[in-house]
């Protein structure tokens, strides 16, 4: 399992809160994606470049446990960690915190696919990244 950790900070926009004034639950999955994309970009493997090489990483499973609410203008830190390659599937875990408070935790599973939908083995650069 990869030991890489990546922190992504964001401030909750007004458009992400519901009538109760808390972050709408589906936005946490968006925060996971934003953090994962930023991490890949910082590591020199932006999604756009992977896709231009014929490597797609669609989400095939997503899970999120909600522990405490976040609200408008809260500063959040999304930590991406615990990478694990299982054949053509990539497992990635996330934590969303406000300060020291854990607000949500979850994971996504991605499969390596060709543009035509053929399952691929992870490319050498993706393997190096995961290690």
Question: Mean pLDDT, nearest integer?
Answer: 93
Spans of 5+ residues with little confidence (pLDDT < 50)? none
The CATH architecture category equals Roll
Oligomer: single chain
Report on this structure:
With 131 residues, the chain is α+β, with helices and mostly antiparallel strands. The protein has a single domain, classed as Hotdog Thioesterase (Thiol Ester Dehydrase, Chain A, Roll), CATH 3.10.129. The longest helix has 16 residues. The chain is elongated, with a radius of gyration of 15 Å.
Protein traits:
alpha+beta; 131 residues; Thiol Ester Dehydrase, Chain A
Topology:
Layout: E1 6-11, H1 27-42, H2 47-52, E2 59-66, E3 75-86, E4 89-98, E5 101-111, H3 124-130
Summarize the structure in short:
By secondary structure, the chain is α+β, with helices and mostly antiparallel strands. The protein has a five-stranded antiparallel sheet with strand order 1-3-4-5-2, with helices on one face. It has one domain: Roll (Thiol Ester Dehydrase, Chain A).
